[in-house]
């Protein structure tokens, strides 16, 4: 039976400024994913989670053990999505503390099978390895399906021409958006409460 339901895309942005290059990158990636799904005849409902607005609630959760309503709603949106775009600024050669703290609150199996597009922003291209040494391992640990193309945007990428190996930022966004859209349209996630085939024979 063909799946015709509206897909849920959640975008987590860890930018701290208003406006921020992190949110700008998140919005451009989101539009790319939406466009690819529309061309395939799929409708998508987009929810943006601005971690800046949840910073105090995230910290309080670690102290009290209980999420505030807005934080609980955000976590439920992330774990119930069909696809996730996760974008962080680079601090000290890694993802931001707020970004990591938010995903530390996600239940260990809640992102199993979740298609994820990882992205980051930074001042210079020398920080781009954060995608491979920090973001990709984080989501692999959470058992998510990270798309092959991760997107890094340095200051010079906005309006830049790229090079023979990296292409331009718009090209990378289009490619990554196409990969996430393809996974969202074909992947059937197993929710944590559902037994895996291995569990049935344990």
From TrEMBL:
Out of the domains of life, which is the source?
Answer: Bacteria
Q: Does the keyword Nucleotidyltransferase apply?
A: no
Q: Which Pfam families match?
A: FMN_red
Q: Name one GO molecular function term.
A: oxidoreductase activity
* Name this polypeptide is given: FMN reductase
Ranges for domain NADPH-dependent FMN reductase-like come to 8-158
GTP-binding among keywords: no
The entry's keywords: Flavoprotein, FMN, Oxidoreductase
InterPro entries per the record? CE1759_FMN_reduct, Flavoprotein-like_sf, FMN_Rdtase-like_dom, NAD(P)H-dep_FMN_reductase
